[in-house]
Amino acid sequence: MLVETKKELLVIPQLFSLNNKEKEICVSLARESISAYLQTGTYLEACTENYPKKLLEKKACFVTLMKNGQLRGCIGRLQAFQPLYLDIIQNAVAAAIEDPRFSPVGEAELPLIKIEVSVLTNPIPLPYKNAQDLIKKIRPKKDGLIIKKGSYQATFLPSVWEELPKKEDFLSQLCLKAGLSENEWTLGCSIKVERYEAIKAVEGK
User: Fold this and answer.
1) I need a surface site. Which of 76, 93, 147, 192 has the fewest CB within 10 A?
2) Per-run averaged pLDDT (10 residues), the chain, 205 residues
3) Angle at CA of residue 135, ends 150 and 190, nearest 5°
4) What distance in Å separates the CA atoms of residue 146 and residue 122, rounded to the nearest whole number?
5) CATH of 124-197 among 3.30.1490.150, 3.30.930.10, 3.40.50.300, 3.40.50.1820
6) 3-class DSSP state of 165
């Protein structure tokens, strides 16, 4: 959206949101996708005519599987390059059968699994001067973070703040996930940091 002023044109980004019905469709689509793949070995053929327009927009997402309150699989993308509904279908299947941390989900197990879909905003750089400045700029419960150093990279979704509410712990565990030392984030500006937000759709909510 463009807002005209006397001096310049200011570009105001359109905010992306999902209402409750759209969130229900996201998690239902994820479950249907996993079920279809486990039964047939092929991806769900979606009828896009029945989807809200927001599921046709190019958006990146993560699909998280939980069982008895424990993580059972989580796969996603950080950059949007395809319609949201397609990203959900592919990431749901990948979370069920391709997460290297877990064995593939079985068809009989699927009813025991709770599904979450996190739709991401585009990541943006988070410049910082030092560790103290980085701590100051991070927004708990709101920011998802990506850290990069050379070939090392990792991300935590905003939902991870529920498990790691302290900023220092959040950063240390993210560094460990990337294969770096846990204090890497304290060493000047040795890592690049990006942040994003996520709209979370949870099955049953």
Assistant:
1) 192
2) 37 67 96 96 89 94 96 95 96 97 96 96 93 96 96 95 97 97 92 94 87
3) 20
4) 11
5) 3.30.1490.150
6) coil
Predicted confidence at residue 151, as pLDDT, reads: 95
Sequence ranges of the chain with CATH classification 3.30.1490.150:
124-197
Q: What's the pLDDT score for residue 2? A: 35
pLDDT, position 190? 87
Report in angstroms the alpha-carbon separations of 100 from 73, 104, 106, 110, 123.
9, 9, 15, 18, 25
Buried-exposed string 128-154: b where 16+ CB fall within 10 A, e elsewhere: beebeebbeebeeeebbbbbebeeebb
Task: Return the closest-CA partner of residue 43 out of 107, 87, 99.
Answer: 87
pTM > 0.70:
yes
What pLDDT shows up at residue 186? 95
Kindly state the helix (H) or strand (E) to which residue 167 belongs, with its residue range. helix 167-177
The two tokens of residue 201 are: 């759709």
Could you tell me how far CA 189 lies from the centroid of its own chain?
25
pLDDT of residue 47: 84
pLDDT for 15: 65
Domain 20-120 has CATH 3.30.365.10: no
Smallest CA-to-CA distance from 199 within 43, 29, 54, 11 is with 54
Quick one: tokens of 189? 């500006």
